[in-house]
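user:
I keep going back and forth on a fold encoding question. Separate attempts, laid side by side, tell us more than any discussion would. Would you put together a sequence-and-structure record for a protein of your own picking? Write it directly below this note and I will take it from there.

assistant:
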Amino acid sequence: MKLCAGLWRRPGYGAWFAADTATAIGVAVRSLAVSLVGYAVSGSTVAAGWLGSASMIAQQVFGVFGGTYVDRHDRRTLIIVNAVMSMLCWGSVAGLLLTGGLRYSILLAIAVVSSAVNGFLGSATDAMLKSIIDMRDYPKARSLNEGRDATVNMAGSPVGGGLYGIRPWLPFLIIACMYAVAGVAATGIRESLRSDVAVRLEAGTAASDDSAASEAGSSGSFFKDFREGWSWSLHRTMLVMTMIVSALLNFGINGVQYGIQLHLVSAGMNGAYIGFVNTGIFCTMLVGAFIANRMSDRLPAGPVICAGFLFSCLAVVPLVCTSNYWVMLICNSLSALPFPIINAMMLGFVFAKTPDSMQGRITVTLTVPAQALSMFCSAAAGSLLPVCGFRRTILVFLIAMLVSAAIVVVYRPLRTIPRADAWDGAELR
C-alpha cells in the first residue's frame, strides 16, 4: 500500500474509492445470486443464461450514448442517481422473493432496467478519476482497484451463494444496502476536483489535443459530442485494436466462467461450492493486482501485456480435457491472474492519454465494443452445454482467447507500450 500512498492524499479520492467499493460489493454479491435465482424460477440453464445476456445487451445498448451524457453533466450527481436506481431495483427483488411474488419475467425486467441505467450512467465513476489523480498514478490506481475488486469478489461470490442458501431474498437485501452506501459516499466527492486539470492545462503539461477536446466537449449538441467521441477513438488504430483484443479475450474468459457456473448449477452443486470457484478467480486477481503495482514503474507495459494474454490461454487448456471440480477451480483461477496486470497497463495507458473532457466517452468506446461479444457469453454457454457438453463448450471460448493473444503478439504498437514513467512522451496512435 506504500506505493499507493500518494493516491490517498489526493482530495476527493477517498470518497470516490468508497463509493466505487460499495458498488463493487453489490456487484460481487449479485453475480452468483442472480444466476441461482434465475435457475430457481425458470428451471432451465438456457433461461438462466439468457438472463445474463439480456442484462448485458441492455447495458451495452444504453452505454453507447451514456458516455456522451456523462461528459456533458456533473459526474458526481450521476454516480448518486445510478446508485439510487440500483438500490430500488435490487431491493424490489428482495421484497418480491420475501413475499413469494417473483416470476422469471419480472426478474428479467428488473435485471434489464438495472443494467440499462448502469450502462447509461455507470461510466461516470471511471470518467471522474482523471480529475482526481495524476497521469503517472494511473497504473497504481487501476491496480489498487483490481486488488480491491479481487478482495471483494473473493468473499462476495461465496457469501452471495451462502446467503441465498439461508434465504433467497437475503443477498438482494445486502445488494440494495451496498448501493445505498455508494450513493451516500458519492456525496463526499467535491465538484471542485476538475480544477486540478485546469491547472495542468494552464501549465502546459497536457497534450494539445487535450485542449482541443476540452473545448469541443464544453459546447455543441449531444449528438455532435457523441460523434466526436467515436470518431476520436476510431481514428486511433491502437484503440481499435485494443477494442478487438479486449472483445475476444472477454468473450473467451467470461464464456469459460459462465460455462463452469451453469454446468455446476445444472449438476445441482451447492451454491457455496460454486461460489468458491469464483473465489479462486479473485484470489489470483489479488495476486495479479499486487504484481501490477510492482511492475508498473519497472517493466515496459507491452511485453508484460503479451505475456498476460498467453498465460490466460494456457491456463484454460486443461479444461478442454476434464470436467473435474478441482481442475475447474485451479485452472479458472489461474486464467484470471494476468487480468489486473493487463488492465493496469493496457487500459491504464489508454485512459492516461485520453483528454479529461472525453473520459466518459472513451470509457464507452472501449467497453461497449469490448463487451459486444460478451453480451452473448451467458446465453452461448447455457445453449452449448446441453448440446456439446462441458469440454467442447470450453473449447469454443478458448479459441476466441487464442485469437486475441495472437493479435496482441503480432501488433507492434501494443507490444511496445513503454513503462508508466515514459507515458508523458508516448503517443496514443
